[in-house]
């Protein structure tokens, strides 16, 4: 018996039961069943050092990884020494090899074991187990992604929607800043709010003036979805690409705002905002204008849902077939991954 089932027909379907959000068991299960099996953003186009340590979702997956940029290729691997487990690289740095600061074991930039002092006579040594474990890695337009145990190659997560996003030249993007918002809500509540424009007229009055709600569209793909908002003149005001389970790429005429939803506890997340500007003259206008105000409006409503789903009188709801296809698709993916 699966834990949850969501009817594929949105007209018959009921939303995820509230225990998915309130029961800590599902928060724990989602680490290995959802987050370890999907793709996480590990760096943007601003990455420059030869060796860059990355902690994959600190406090949640908490996996120390290392991105190693060689002359011709970039690799991702475990950042944990195969001798006694020290984290190898603590800060971004330039180097021609990796040397452990505990007992001097050395690895190539590709993660191959090179040498180890005082190990003469050790049997079956070195073996492939002494190399650093490679981690699945993908690059798209300068953004780098890693997955601990991918259910599918990265291409399956982004190929189709990527074909829709051709207006911006990634080479022209300038990283201009990073902000963090702490939100008292389950990670999936934050994502499912992002996945529908249904709430725009009710929650975002200012945004509603620049987005033509009537023409707002949602397309769903295997592991992603794309929402498009048009302005009054019929031009694209914003495209909102969601990559399951927690990555949001928001494309505006001025550039890209990337949001990463990082689970902290069943009732808390940190949302990281990364801003990449291509056209400074139109920066922060239109649908990508006052993102801070929009974020605070979303936080207030999502935190209210977090309190509401604990109610004895609430368990599951229904979907709007015309406005909540993205949320329905997201719930179906969660139910499928949790199994
Ligand atoms: S832990 Fe790295 S050499 Fe001992
Ligand atoms: Fe919103």
Total beta strands: 16
Gap between N and C termini: 8 Å
User: What's the total helix number?
Assistant: 8
Looking at the overall shape, the CATH architecture of the largest domain is Alpha-Beta Complex
CATH topology of the largest domain: Naphthalene 1,2-dioxygenase Alpha Subunit, Chain A, domain 1
Please indicate the count of domains. 2
Which radius of gyration do the C-alpha atoms yield? 22 Å
CATH class of the largest domain: Alpha Beta
Strand content: 25-35%
Q: Kindly report the average pLDDT value.
A: 93
Explain this structure.
A hairpin with a 3-residue loop joins β11 and β12 (224-230). The longest helix has 18 residues, at 291-308. This protein folds into two domains: 19-37 and 153-338, Naphthalene 1,2-dioxygenase Alpha Subunit, Chain A, domain 1 (Alpha-Beta Complex), CATH 3.90.380.10; 41-140, Rieske [2Fe-2S] iron-sulphur domain (Rieske Iron-sulfur Protein, 3-layer Sandwich). The protein is an alpha+beta fold and 339 residues long. α4 runs antiparallel to α8. Helices cover 23% and strands 28% of the residues. The mean pLDDT is 93. The strands form four sheets. A seven-stranded antiparallel beta sheet has the order 10-16-15-14-13-12-11, sandwiched between helices.
Write the layout of secondary structure elements.
Elements: H1 19-22, H2 24-35, E1 40-43, E2 51-56, E3 63-69, E4 74-78, E5 98-99, E6 106-107, E7 113-115, E8 136-140, E9 143-147, H3 154-164, E10 174-183, H4 187-194, H5 200-203, H6 205-210, E11 217-220, E12 224-230, E13 236-243, E14 247-252, E15 255-265, E16 268-277, H7 291-308, H8 325-338
Antiparallel strand pairs: 1-9, 2-3, 3-4, 5-6, 6-7, 8-9, 10-16, 11-12, 12-13, 13-14, 14-15, 15-16
Helix pairs in contact: 4-7, 4-8
Bound molecules: FE2/S2 (inorganic) cluster (FES) and fe (ii) ion.
